[in-house]
DNA sequence: TCCTATTCTTGAATT
DNA sequence: AAGAATAGGA
């Protein structure tokens, strides 16, 4: 709990005696040696750290020490006395990244960084600013941050009020549109009329406006508002903007390529500096204020400077130049921009020096992660993109192993092959923690999971639905929200009938009418209605109990710790019981999550504080303590690294994703390619790519074509290998003259205008081929291949081929081979529980291999160590 | 109010 | 093919 108010406390070794006037001289005198924290940096990194004045863009390629530069830069600013911790604004996208920075800063400075109040995510900082000036956005400072569920529920009500068929115009779609507008910094009045009209027969714009009104009434904001309302406040109140501009002497932005327009505008407003604001002045400021204590009041001198005109909303392709920008440092990599689909504007990074004139651009191109072959492959691939700033990653590491490309007959063989390679790596002494499988689409994971369960290979899935998005967490939060603010209608509505209390739609509708007539919150309406005869006795009694319970909990709140209160609420409401009674596979996990939620409340002082931050901060960190293979999407792999990376599913349609191509055209293709680049650059020593000839897409088997990206890999760095999962190609390697056969026609045609349609036709043709009996395969290769699968006989057509895949996904021979011979502690018809498949009954015992009929998941073969007695 | 039948949808997933 | 989400009927 050390607050870093005294720069001299920062660290004994690295920070000189703090004489502001002499600080520069001292620094210069030391320049040849430099402070300790600079010593390990290469020249470019060092330049990025030491260029403190003016806008800086650091183009940090994968594995070039981006986070290190950011944290060292902060340390440098502090140690040079350029600013105090509270005067540095440092934004990231994810809580994880923010935590990581805090952690590393702590290591560098020698203690916890409690004194960096403005290091956080865009949304947490935006929210913090909004809470400070909430009244200017017609909100109270304790406003609720809505989750997507609440948002959709609210929009549904609005659609109903407008008599719009929410079948034809789903609330989710509107939520998406509004989110998109907010990402682009557009208030309701600024939405281009044409766009606003596309929803609900021209009512889109009006709905957006009334949604905003409703939010104010509910004292709520959505994620977009946390930035958008800030922007509006900054524009309408130049004095407030000026306060922040003066407070933030230095701005640092992580992952700049992922910023959307709203974030860009927000940053630019904050980064405009009053013109007399020069660095020597800053130093003086710090010095004089240090004696004055924490006070942040700006000097009169600075206030005299007229503010610069607000930036205009971004017009198409036209951005206003901001004449005076202060010390903003954005770090990013245009080649790793993979979030265009959720509003990120690669343009922000591509146009940085236009937006921030006089910007210094520093390229970090020395890669410290991957071997030569991997880096060459990744660089060669990404070089096919046109819209990029251009970097050439290089390494001093050895060439290492070539990137492998392996073809399989189908996705199951692919999974089997990868499973075997992993076991082999394991035998060679590789840590499972250093092995990752990166897929394009999450549905690819299932096959691997099935395979790993069969093999008894520990794995962990990273990503997926977020912790606080889970139904049980949101339910629990809704209870707490109603206790905290009785006017939270959305929360109340969510839980009135959870667990079931016989308060269905009819009752809720009635409450709504009542509430609207009297202009009171739902909860108060409930309290009133209970006193009348308007409800049936059963519902009435039930509702009365609910009201009484909440009254009691609210009274208890004063005298009970908030964690205890949460536990009491969950128990007394019957919510815990509801899940205890539930026999479905994930009930146990849900109860565990609830426990975790209560536990996580301890970090907050009280209920209020907890609720304010929960929607912004809640994420679960998977326990990384066990040695396990990581399984995740390419997207969630960004920022991570592993010794061994497996990249399955490099097929046209899947990767690059057909849908991206259809929707985004060339830009989409480039984003997919960047995704490939991200995938390859995650690998330190081994990168292994796979493609399958047949894959089941939405239930039907299709023949697929190797990804065009395979042809874009440099031959010199790539080795084509045999699938180890059984030779699918009759042992010939079967790739024909061109390395990836069909690719030749493709590689040359995809740049022409007609390529998209050709693409669509082709995959359509494939689908048809796959469905027609016996047509989808070439020659007899399949039969031979099939005979090596024990779970499938030589099925003559794809129809039975697919049905053959059901049931136990197991290869008998391997199971026997793996069997340890020890007898299992389980016996026939034992009731067991499995982490993933839930409850089931043992139907067969074979050594330590059990066949279990799961209640939900069907029959599976699993290793006994994966189940416990139910 | 609950249960069943039908329809829809199936890319990534922060805050 | 399968799961979720809805609508409609008992």
TrEMBL record:
Looking at the record, the residues that make up the UvrD-like helicase C-terminal domain are: 372-639
**CC terms in the record's Gene Ontology section:** cytosol; DNA helicase complex
Polar residues bias: start-end ranges: 751-768
A Pfam family matched in the record = UvrD-helicase
Tagged with keyword ATP-binding: yes
Residues annotated as binding ATP: 60-67
Q: Domain (UvrD-like helicase ATP-binding): give its ranges.
A: 39-371
Q: Which GO terms describe its biological process?
A: recombinational repair
Q: Entry's InterPro entries?
A: DExx_box_DNA_helicase_dom_sf, DNA_helicase_UvrD-like_C, DNA_helicase_UvrD/REP, P-loop_NTPase, UvrD-like_ATP-bd
Which of UniProt's keywords are assigned here? ATP-binding, DNA-binding, Helicase, Hydrolase, Isomerase, Nucleotide-binding
| Amino acid composition bias (Low complexity), ranges on this chain | 783-802
* EC class: isomerase
Q: Where is this region: Disordered?
A: 1-26, 277-329, 751-805
Reactions performed catalytically: Couples ATP hydrolysis with the unwinding of duplex DNA by translocating in the 3'-5' direction; ATP + H2O = ADP + phosphate + H(+)
Which residues fall in a compositionally biased region of kind Basic and acidic residues? Answer: 282-293, 313-323
Please give the superkingdom of this protein's source: Bacteria
Q: Note the Gene3D superfamilies from the entry.
A: 1.10.10.160, P-loop containing nucleotide triphosphate hydrolases, PCRA, domain 4
- Annotated Gene Ontology MF terms? 3'-5' DNA helicase activity; ATP binding; ATP hydrolysis activity; DNA binding
Output the PANTHER family linked to this UniProt entry. Answer: ATP-DEPENDENT DNA HELICASE SRS2 (PTHR11070:SF2), UVRD / RECB / PCRA DNA HELICASE FAMILY MEMBER (PTHR11070)
What is the annotated role of this protein in its UniProt record?
A: Has both ATPase and helicase activities. Unwinds DNA duplexes with 3' to 5' polarity with respect to the bound strand and initiates unwinding most effectively when a single-stranded region is present. Involved in the post-incision events of nucleotide excision repair and methyl-directed mismatch repair.
Protein name as it appears in the record: DNA 3'-5' helicase
Look up and give the organism this protein is from: Bradyrhizobium hipponense
């Amino acid at each position: 709990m050390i607050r870093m108010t005294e720069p001299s406390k920062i660290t004994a070794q690295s920070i000189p005696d703090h004489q502001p006037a002499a600080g520069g001289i001292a620094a210069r005198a030391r320049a040849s040696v430099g402070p300790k924290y600079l010593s390990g940096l290469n020249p470019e990194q060092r330049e990025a750290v030491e260029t403190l004045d003016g806008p800086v863009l650091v183009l940090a390629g994968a594995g070039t020490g981006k986070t290190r530069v950011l944290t060292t830069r902060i340390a440098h600013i502090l140690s040079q006395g350029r600013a105090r911790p509270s005067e540095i604004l440092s934004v990231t996208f994810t809580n994880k990244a923010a935590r990581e920075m805090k952690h590393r800063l702590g290591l560098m400075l020698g203690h916890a960084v409690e004194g960096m109040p403005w290091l956080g995510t865009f949304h947490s900082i935006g929210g913090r600013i909004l809470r400070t000036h909430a009244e200017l956005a017609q909100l109270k400072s304790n406003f609720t941050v809505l989750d997507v569920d609440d948002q959709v529920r609210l929009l549904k009500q609005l659609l109903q009020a407008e008599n719009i068929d929410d079948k034809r115009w789903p609330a989710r779609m509107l939520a998406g549109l509004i989110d998109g507008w907010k990402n682009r910094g557009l208030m309701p009045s600024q939405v281009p009329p044409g766009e606003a009209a596309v929803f609900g027969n021209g009512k889109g714009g009006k709905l957006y406006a009334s949604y905003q009104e409703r939010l104010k009434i509910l004292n709520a904001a959505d994620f977009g508002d946390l930035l958008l309302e800030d922007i509006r406040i900054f524009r309408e109140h130049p004095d407030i903007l000026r306060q922040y501009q003066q407070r933030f002497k230095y701005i640092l932005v992580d992952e700049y390529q992922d910023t959307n327009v709203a974030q860009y505008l927000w940053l630019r407003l904050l980064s405009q500096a009053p013109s007399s604001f020069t660095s020597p002045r800053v130093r003086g400021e710090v010095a004089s204020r240090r004696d004055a204590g924490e006070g942040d009041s700006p000097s009169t001198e600075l206030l005299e400077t007229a503010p610069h005109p607000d930036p205009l909303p971004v017009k198409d392709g036209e951005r206003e130049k901001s004449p005076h920008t202060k010390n903003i440092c954005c770090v990013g990599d245009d080649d790793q921009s993979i979030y265009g689909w959720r509003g990120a504007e690669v343009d922000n990074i591509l146009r940085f020096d236009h937006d921030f004139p006089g910007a210094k651009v520093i390229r970090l191109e020395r890669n410290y992660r991957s071997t030569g072959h991997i880096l060459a492959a990744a660089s060669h691939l990404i070089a096919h993109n046109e819209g990029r700033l251009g970097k050439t990653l290089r390494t001093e590491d050895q060439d290492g192993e070539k990137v492998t490309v392996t073809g399989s007959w189908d996705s199951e063989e692919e999974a089997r092959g990868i499973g075997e390679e992993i076991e082999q790596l394991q035998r060679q002494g590789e840590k499972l923690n250093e092995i990752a499988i990166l897929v394009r689409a999450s549905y690819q994971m299932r096959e691997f999971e099935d395979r790993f369960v069969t093999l008894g290979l520990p794995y962990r899935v990273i990503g997926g639905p977020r912790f606080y998005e889970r139904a049980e967490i949101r339910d629990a939060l809704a209870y707490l929200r109603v206790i905290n603010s009785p006017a939270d209608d959305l929360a109340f509505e969510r839980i009135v009938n959870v667990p079931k209390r016989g308060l269905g739609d009819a009752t809720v509708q009635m409450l709504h009418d009542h509430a609207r007539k009297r202009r009171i919150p739902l909860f108060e309406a409930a309290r009133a209605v209970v006193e009348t005869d308007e409800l049936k006795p059963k519902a009435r009694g039930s509702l009365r109990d609910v009201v009484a319970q909440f009254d009691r909990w609210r009274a208890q709140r004063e005298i009970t710790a908030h964690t205890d209160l949460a536990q009491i609420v969950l128990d007394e409401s019957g919510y815990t019981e509801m899940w205890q009674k539930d026999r479905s596979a994930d009930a146990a996990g849900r109860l565990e999550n609830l426990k975790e939620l209560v536990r996580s409340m301890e970090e907050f002082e009280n209920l209020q504080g907890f609720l304010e931050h929960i929607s912004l901060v809640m994420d679960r960190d998977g326990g990384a303590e066990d040695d396990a293979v990581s399984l995740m999407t390419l997207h969630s792999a960004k920022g991570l690294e592993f010794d061994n990376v497996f990249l399955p599913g490099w097929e046209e349609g899947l990767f690059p994703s057909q849908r991206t191509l259809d929707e985004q055209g060339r830009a989409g293709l480039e984003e997919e390619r960047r995704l490939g680049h991200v995938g390859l650059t995650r690998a330190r020593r081994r990168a292994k790519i796979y493609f399958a000839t047949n894959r089941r897409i939405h239930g039907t088997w299709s023949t697929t074509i190797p990804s065009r990206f395979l042809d874009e890999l440099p031959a010199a760095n790539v080795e084509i290998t045999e699938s180890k999962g059984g030779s699918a190609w009759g042992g010939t390697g079967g790739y024909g003259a061109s390395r990836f056969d069909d690719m030749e026609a493709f590689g040359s045609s995809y740049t022409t205008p007609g390529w998209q349609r050709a693409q669509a036709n082709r995959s359509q043709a494939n689908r048809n081929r796959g469905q027609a009996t016996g047509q989808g395969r070439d020659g007899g290769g399949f039969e031979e291949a099939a005979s090596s699968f024990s779970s499938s006989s030589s099925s003559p057509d794809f129809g039975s081929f697919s049905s053959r895949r059901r049931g136990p996904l197991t290869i008998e021979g391997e199971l026997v081979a793996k069997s340890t011979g020890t007898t299992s502690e389980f016996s026939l018809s034992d009731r067991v529980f499995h982490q993933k498949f839930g409850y089931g009954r043992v139907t067969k015992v074979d050594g330590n291999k059990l066949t279990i009929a799961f209640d939900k998941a069907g029959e599976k073969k699993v290793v006994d160590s994966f189940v416990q007695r139910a």
